């Protein structure tokens, strides 16, 4: 993939998240630049998914704001979802569509990458499954198809909630390599994972929501 713009920035300022009168986190601030990763850690229920959903713009923080390249993510003229790729707990794939059709759909929603659909499926070791309905893929193959969206579209900011769920050790290393390449190209990453994540970059910010 061609390198991303090295001037991209993400800044989170004084984020607060309250659920049912309970404060999950407050006054949380951090920033990311090209090639940097944010690793969100913490016990079950500490608020990791809630933080990632706020970073995606799916949920507004109760306090604080997030800026992309200096502009509030809710007011970007280009649309913040044009720069983010989100893979959540759920695969978010259409079970009645084939693997290929799922990627055509994903590309229609974002900025298509220079990698073709067949090449993307090959990269995710799903070559030969292009015309198979997603409902007939194994759990790990469904997860790889969900993560294939990251390659099928071109988004500098990847936001991944437990990306390794259902993957075997080979699948995990496939995704880690993909993430490392993304960071090498100047992409950014926010991730939470109960598995250890092996990243080549030393440019990692750790946030522990249980601390
Ligand atoms: N839609 C919601 N409405 C009310 N409370 C919610 C909602 N979503 C999450 N919560 C609560 O917020 C808290 C944090 O949930 P969250 O999913 O962010 O935690 P997490 O750190 O990602 O947990 P896990 O490691 O188990 O995935 C939990 O106590 C949960 O019950």
Automatic annotation (TrEMBL):
Single annotated GO MF: transmembrane transporter activity
Keyword Transport: yes
Gene3D superfamilies hit by this protein: P-loop containing nucleotide triphosphate hydrolases
Coiled-coil residues: none
A Pfam family of this chain: ABC_tran
SUPFAM superfamilies reported for this sequence: P-loop containing nucleoside triphosphate hydrolases
UniProt name for this protein: Heme exporter protein A
Organism field: Thiogranum longum
């Amino acid at each position: 993939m061609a390198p991303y713009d090295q001037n991209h920035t993400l800044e989170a300022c004084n984020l607060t998240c309250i659920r049912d009168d309970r404060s999950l986190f407050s006054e949380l601030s951090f920033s990311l630049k090209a090639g940097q990763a944010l690793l969100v850690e913490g016990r079950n229920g500490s608020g990791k998914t809630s933080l990632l959903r706020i970073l995606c713009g799916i949920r507004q923080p109760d306090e604080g704001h997030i800026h992309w390249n200096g502009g509030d993510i809710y007011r970007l003229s280009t649309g913040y979802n044009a720069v983010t790729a989100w893979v959540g707990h759920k695969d978010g794939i259409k079970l009645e569509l084939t693997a290929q059709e799922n990627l055509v759909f994903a590309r229609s929603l974002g900025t298509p990458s220079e990698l073709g659909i067949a090449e993307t499926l090959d990269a995710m070791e799903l070559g030969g499954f292009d015309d198979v309905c997603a409902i007939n893929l194994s759990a790990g193959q469904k997860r790889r198809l969900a993560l294939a969206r990251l390659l099928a579209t071109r988004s500098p900011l990847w936001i991944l909630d437990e990306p390794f769920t259902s993957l075997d050790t080979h699948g995990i290393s496939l995704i880690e390599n993909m993430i490392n390449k993304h960071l090498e190209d100047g992409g950014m990453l926010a991730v939470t994972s109960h598995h250890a994540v092996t990243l080549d970059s030393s440019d990692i910010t750790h946030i522990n929501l249980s601390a």
